[in-house]
TrEMBL record:
Record-annotated membrane-spanning stretches: 12-41, 47-64, 71-89, 124-144, 164-191
Entry superkingdom: Bacteria
Keyword tags: Membrane, Transmembrane, Transmembrane helix
Keyword Glycosyltransferase: no
Protein name (record): ABC transporter permease
Pfam families: Trep_Strep
Length: 207
């Protein structure tokens, strides 16, 4: 069983590095999803972005768990991702899911799992929870439509843009969004864990 201490300067630097990498994965995921859905499923971009984030960011998350096996690292990364949503002009509510999911994922990984590399199921579970934080920008489409529309109007979006954005926002597409996000995160966690275990295990988390 590992002994956990507070985050050190080196840990915070690593959190910053992996948060930047995770941010890059989010950008790539949004670009790829926009391209794919634009060709195959026009209007469904928002529904599939969280799943693509979960698919691509698994290795980054697993590396963070390995390199900084201390409580607080995952929480900080979640808060940073939430702040990115706020700074980039997303609906204010978008900050909350990543902050909450980051904290819960941290508890699963470093409190319940104690950062033990043998507890693969808990590590994957923590990643699933963390990935659902990426739903922050899209949840208001279903649950806070009026407020979301008002924010779009304030940002200068046209009524045609708003109509297209909400044309596929239904209960079935919400369920689909949850399911594809779960699948994307599971696949991303599996391959991320395999990749990290194969190439980055020696001497991990020491010091």
């Amino acid at each position: 069983m590992r002994k956990f201490t507070g985050l050190r300067t080196k840990d915070l630097i690593n959190v910053g590095i992996y948060s930047a990498l995770y941010f890059i994965c989010m950008g790539i995921a949004e670009g790829l999803t926009t391209l794919i859905t634009g060709l195959l499923f026009p209007g469904f971009t928002s529904i599939f972005v969280p799943a693509m984030v979960g698919l691509l960011a698994g290795p980054v998350y697993m590396l963070l768990c390995q390199k900084v096996p201390r409580f607080g690292a995952i929480t900080i990364m979640g808060v940073l991702m939430g702040l990115f949503f706020l700074i980039s002009g997303h609906f204010a509510f978008a900050f909350i899911p990543y902050a909450v999911c980051g904290f819960l994922a941290d508890v699963i990984q470093t409190v319940v799992g104690q950062g033990d590399p043998q507890k693969k199921g808990l590590r994957i579970g923590s990643y699933l929870v963390f990935t659902f934080g990426s739903l922050g920008p899209v949840l208001p489409l279903w649950f806070m439509k009026n407020a979301y529309v008002a924010s779009l109007v304030k940002r200068g979006k046209s009524q045609d843009y708003i109509n297209v954005l909400f044309s596929h926002i239904t209960l079935p597409t919400f369920i689909a969004c949850i399911l594809v996000t779960l699948v994307g995160a599971l696949v991303g966690a599996y391959f991320g864990d395999k990749l990290v275990s194969k190439h980055f295990t020696s001497g991990a988390g020491r010091g």
